[in-house]
Amino acid sequence: QVQLVESGGGLVQAGGSLRLSCAASGSMFSTIAMGWYRQTPGKQRELVATISSVGSTYYADSVKGRFTISRDNAKNTVFLQMNRLKPEDTAVYYCAAFRGATSWGQGTQVTVSS
């Protein structure tokens, strides 16, 4: 199982930006597809973005054009750059590693005020 630690969440005004980071353990990071999910109380966790081991990306329609997922294999880290944030982006954001069973980080809170 991959150990994941997220950071970078916080409180930001609508229209602002945040950059989330997720540090992963292990030597196989470069071969693992990674993703970001988010969850609000009472709702299912939803997929935000993914990045494959070779850098192919996918975005949910709700964040396309505003969020960018990237990875630095030398630092075992995946990022989520979030621009033009909206109040509806408020959620706990989770990092995920897709290697066999999905591994999850502990989550980081993002709050966007209107």
Structure commentary:
This protein is mostly beta strands and 114 residues long. Strand 5 and strand 6 form a beta hairpin.
How would you briefly describe this protein structure?
By secondary structure, the protein is mainly beta. It has strands at 4-7, 10-13, 18-24, 33-39, 46-51, 57-59, 67-72, 77-82, 91-99, 101-104, 108-113. It contains no helices and eleven strands.
Keywords:
mainly beta, four-stranded antiparallel β-sheet, seven-stranded mixed β-sheet, 0% helix, 114 residues
Average pLDDT figure: 96
| Shape category | globular
SSE order, one letter for each helix or strand: EEEEEEEEEEE
**Which value, in Å, is the CA radius of gyration?**
13 Å
The percent of residues in helical segments reads under 10%
Largest sheet: 7 strands, mixed
Flag low-confidence runs: none
Distance between the termini: 38 Å
Structural class: mainly beta
Strand content: over 45%
Number of helices: 0
Number of strands: 11
SSE topology:
Blueprint: E1 4-7, E2 10-13, E3 18-24, E4 33-39, E5 46-51, E6 57-59, E7 67-72, E8 77-82, E9 91-99, E10 101-104, E11 108-113
Parallel strand pairs: 2-11
Antiparallel strand pairs: 1-3, 3-8, 4-5, 4-9, 5-6, 7-8, 9-10, 9-11
